[in-house]
Model the fold of this input.
Amino acid sequence: MGGAVKGCTRGMVILHPTRARVVNEAHERAKAESTIIPRDVLQVVANSIQDARTAVNFAMCSKACKEMTETDSLWKSLYELKYPLPSKAPPKGKWKELYVFQTKFMRDVLLNKNLDEILEKAYPRWESVGSISLPVAT
Done:
């Protein structure tokens, strides 16, 4: 055996190509299941996130970080920091969707320079309704 390394007690392992895939999958699975930084430390970091951009950047760090940025508690706290709470809480698992919707609505509708045009297209013109008189109790 010409390729053996001196001092190596294990020797060399040659894998058939069909077996190499199984070994690689096991290795990738082990990497995904174990984190270098303890999960409780990552949770402390996730709990200190103050804006959506930071949450998105944190989620791109690892699979464990991504899991921690998908929680309702995080997105509810981010929502509370930026918007008034809705009168009725969204269903479980929907705080992130509500945050994204509210942000898009603010950007695309309320802060749009053409708000009047958007409202005219979305709602009937109130000028054609005329005045409305309500009876007043005397």
Observations:
- The chain has a mean pLDDT of 78.
- The radius of gyration is 28 Å.
- Residues 18-70 form one domain.
